[in-house]
Protein: Very short patch repair endonuclease
Organism: Streptomyces hainanensis
Amino acid sequence: MREQGAGGRWKEQLPPERAYKRRAGAVAPAVEQDRAAGGRGRRHVALSDGRFARASISLRLYRRTRRIRAYLRWSRDGKTQERYVCEVEHASRGENLAEAWQRAKERGLLAGETLPPESTASSPEVRAAMRANRGKDTGPEMALRRLLYHRGLRYRVNSRPLAEIRRKADLIFPSDHVAVFVDGCFWHGCPDHYRPAVKNADFWREKIDGNRARDAETNEKLLEAGWKVIRVWEHEDPARAADTIDQLLRRSRVSGVRRGATPPDVERACDGALQASDDDPAVAQD
């Protein structure tokens, strides 16, 4: 990508909004930035006092010149700092963010984060994933709930599908016997993003293997009880996941299949990528 390009790709018309503007229903901003940078641990800038600040890339359209410029932004002592990175010309926002993060790295604007001595993580990225993990109301969960709620669907949040087993689903549709789990890539061993730990390898292998086995057992118990199970990886597109859930519920309701139905198998919502909104309800009762 040529930094000095004079509008380059966009000669006679403005770039499309999808090249620089966040779309409705997209992944949470932090998730989007982490993905483009290649991990949360790769988003740091060094402060002069030895501390680190987590940065983000801002894309701005300059209409007069039809250029999209990328800026690295971070906060220091409550004040926003900013540094110009480059011009970008890709047709999608994701590609432009990735390009800008790569250029920021090449220009030496980013700093590596070191692990504290007491950390059991194998890398800064793993430590960030571990610290960001929450049992409920995660960014991917909130994004999916918001989309489903706006489609008119009502659900219960963080509830047990079966009273007799002490395991909760992130969303349940009780009348339809549908349980939805949004699985974190690190803790549930995502085949695309999970990487075996180097530090304390045996401990983490047993931990992740145990989580996988627990997931499989949960699926089996729910299926035996007549529930349909949908699992969504945190990196997957929430809009596509919402489509899968919506279609499953509509098929079930049109065919009259309600309680007591026998589901065919566990479904994975989609293969692709997963913003929370203030108006998204914490619980939307079915």
